[in-house]
């Protein structure tokens, strides 16, 4: 049963991500700033940092699966989020072994993940001519607000998830011995 907890958390966060803009004040939503919720990616970063070991890649697998689900449900273009989240979480997983698992490293990994994923998604959407925002405007009006909004989400959910993921990792390691 415990193996289902992380996918259930990711599924719940994905649902919340879909209605996130409706939860924000109307003044923020109608402004010229674009805040894209990447909450599933943030939870995947926490999974990569606190749950995975050097030899496990659960976060990468969940990134591929939930990236595909996001593609199917929200974008209509298959593979963009799956490809981006999979590679992004693989890179974060590889980087995480060089840092201690704490709030500062989680914030750094979260910022790097959001920057890589959102810029990659924008690049891919620009290549297939779905997005046409200039890179200067993209950086100022979309990337920076997206980073700030998602870091606030990370700060809110870090106390709830980080310790829980470490406990589940320890339980999984003790059961495998």
Q: What percentage of amino acids are in beta strands?
A: under 5%
Average predicted local confidence, pLDDT: 92
The biggest beta sheet is recorded as: none
- Assembly type of the chains comes to single chain
Task: Kindly provide the radius of gyration, computed on alpha-carbon positions and rounded to a whole number of angstroms.
Answer: 16 Å
Specify the structural class.
mainly alpha
Number of helices: 8
Record field, number of beta strands? 0
How many distinct domains?
A: 1
Poorly predicted tracts of residues? none
Q: What's the overall geometry?
A: globular
Order of helices and strands: HHHHHHHH
Termini separation: 19 Å
Helicity range: over 70%
Description of the structure:
With 177 residues, the chain is mostly helical. The chain has one domain (36-171). It has helices spanning 5-18, 20-23, 26-29, 39-50, 58-75, 80-96, 103-127, 135-176. The two termini are 19 Å apart. The relative contact order is 0.15.
Descriptive labels:
177 residues; 8 helices; globular
Outline:
With 177 residues, this protein is mainly α. Helices cover 77% and strands 0% of the residues.
């Amino acid at each position: 049963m415990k193996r289902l907890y992380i996918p259930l958390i990711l599924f719940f966060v994905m649902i919340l991500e879909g209605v996130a803009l409706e939860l924000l004040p109307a003044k923020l939503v109608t402004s010229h700033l674009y805040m894209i919720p990447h909450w599933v990616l943030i939870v995947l970063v926490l999974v990569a940092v606190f749950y995975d070991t050097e030899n496990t890649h659960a976060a990468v697998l969940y990134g591929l699966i939930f990236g595909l689900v996001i593609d199917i449900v929200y974008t209509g273009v298959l593979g963009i989020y799956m490809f981006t989240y999979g590679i992004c979480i693989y890179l974060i997983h590889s980087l995480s072994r060089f840092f201690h698992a704490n709030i500062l490293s989680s914030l750094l990994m979260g910022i790097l993940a959001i920057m890589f994923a959102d810029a990659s998604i924008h690049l891919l959407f620009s290549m297939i001519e779905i997005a046409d925002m200039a890179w200067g405007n993209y950086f100022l009006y979309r990337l920076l607000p997206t980073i700030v909004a998602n870091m606030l989400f990370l700060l809110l959910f870090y106390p709830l998830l980080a310790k829980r993921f470490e406990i589940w990792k320890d339980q999984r390691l003790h059961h495998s011995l």
